[in-house]
Write a structure and sequence with these properties.
This protein has 400 residues and is an alpha/beta fold. 38% of the residues lie in helices and 14% in strands. The longest helix is centred in the middle third of the chain and has 23 residues. The two termini are 21 Å apart.
């Protein structure tokens, strides 16, 4: 278990215990974030199989990126003895995060009312696809389905092509982020004495819809769906992707002064003096002519030279990294965003550093992602189970 002494600073959630009954992305991302902030996270996994992401390729790297700083415990929750172990864990926990299929948590005997009987102070967070009162409450939620139904996917892609699924599991990550902030809010309210315990539900669908924000504002103001604009900004120009000799560059000339600086950077002051491009509204209205003028200019440069020229004139610009090249970026390397967590007896874990930095507090990457059930014996011992009882549970398949 991590300590504040080992990290050299105060962990914000030091002393907070989280029981994690989630899998794949949304829930594990949420509980990993809480763990990075110092919570002691006990991850309950199915006997013999574990979190489904343990079997998603590449193995174990997919699992590793969202499951550090957790202690893995295997439990057969179809067995009453496994359910009792879970209740013993929850009796002393601060937070329970679960993302089981609708109805399953009741069959496990771990519904909110039951858990509240053994721990009235529990902050109980349920991540669902659509919510308990939804007409779709029994529909299994997958990220692509959430992106499609929420409207997010409709905005991604070229105007005359089929909408595209985001490369990120955006629906999962949105829900995971809301789960974290909701748990923290409930813990704060409990600490203040405003509540005893709380049940929080985070529907992925609702969470994704909430992120439409200004794109929904477009519809509220026009009664039209927000259109797909491909690789260029809908209301700022020039602002988007441009091809260079050896790759693609993002250029974000979002103000009049940046437009003038861009023209100077590529030795085209005539464009800055062109009446068709005099104001932002002019540049957006005449976007086709603007791109026709800029694209051949940019196509004469290599990416590195074009980015350097634009940045010398303070124009926001950068290359298009992929998930391999991003780790060679100067910023990423200097900030050590790719981290290696050492493990004995098996390959080290490659993970991404926690992105938030405090002044007086710290975050910590202290425990590498564990093997399935690696901490089962330790956690059961902490609960007061003697070795003979643990052996009996293991023999009967209640734990691995």
């Amino acid at each position: 278990m991590r300590t504040e002494e080992s990290t050299g600073g105060r962990l914000p959630l030091s002393g907070v215990t989280v029981v994690d009954l989630t899998q794949v992305v949304a829930g594990p991302f949420a509980t990993m974030t809480l763990a990075d902030l110092g919570a002691d996270v006990v991850k309950i996994e199915a006997v013999g199989r574990g979190d489904r992401s343990r079997s998603i390729q590449p193995v174990p790297e997919y699992f590793d990126t969202i499951n550090r700083n957790k202690r893995s415990v295997t439990l057969n929750l179809k067995d009453e003895r496994g359910q009792q172990v879970a209740l013993d864990l929850l009796a002393d926990a601060d937070v329970f995060v679960e993302s089981t299929k609708p109805g399953r948590i009741d069959r496990y005997g771990l519904d909110y009312e039951t858990v509240r009987e053994v721990n009235p102070d529990i902050v109980y967070c349920t991540i669902t696809g659509f919510g308990t009162d939804s007409p779709y409450q029994d529909l299994p939620a997958w990220d692509m389905l959430i992106q499609g139904m929420s409207g997010i996917m409709s905005m991604t892609g070229e105007p005359d092509r089929t909408p595209l699924w985001s490369g990120l599991p955006s629906g999962d990550l949105i829900a995971g982020s809301y789960a974290v902030q909701s748990v923290l809010a409930a813990l704060y309210a409990r600490e203040r004495g405003d509540i005893e315990g709380e049940w929080v539900e985070v529907p992925m669908f609702d969470a994704a819809v909430s992120w439409l924000t200004s794109r929904a504002g477009y519809t509220f103001g026009t009664d039209e769906p927000f259109p797909r604009h491909g690789t260029h900004h809908p209301s700022i120009a020039p602002f988007g992707l441009f091809d260079a000799v050896d790759g693609t560059v993002v250029v974000a000339a979002g103000t009049g002064s940046l437009w003038e600086a861009l023209c100077a950077a590529v030795d085209r002051p005539d464009l800055a003096e062109d009446d068709r491009f005099a104001t932002m509204d002019d540049r957006v209205e005449n976007r086709t002519e603007l791109l026709a003028a800029l694209e051949p200019v940019f196509a004469d440069y290599e990416v590195a030279e074009l980015v350097a020229r634009l940045r010398e004139h303070d124009v926001p610009a950068g290359p298009i990294h992929d998930t391999a090249s991003v780790w060679e970026d100067e910023h990423v390397r200097e900030r050590n965003l790719r981290r290696t967590m050492e493990r004995e007896g098996r390959p080290d874990a490659e993970v991404i550093d926690h992105p938030v930095h405090f002044t007086n507090l710290v975050t910590d990457l202290g425990t590498p992602p564990e093997e399935l059930g690696e901490s089962t014996d330790d956690v059961l011992s902490d609960l007061g189970y003697d070795p003979e009882t643990v052996d009996d549970l293991r023999r009967d398949g209640v734990v691995d």
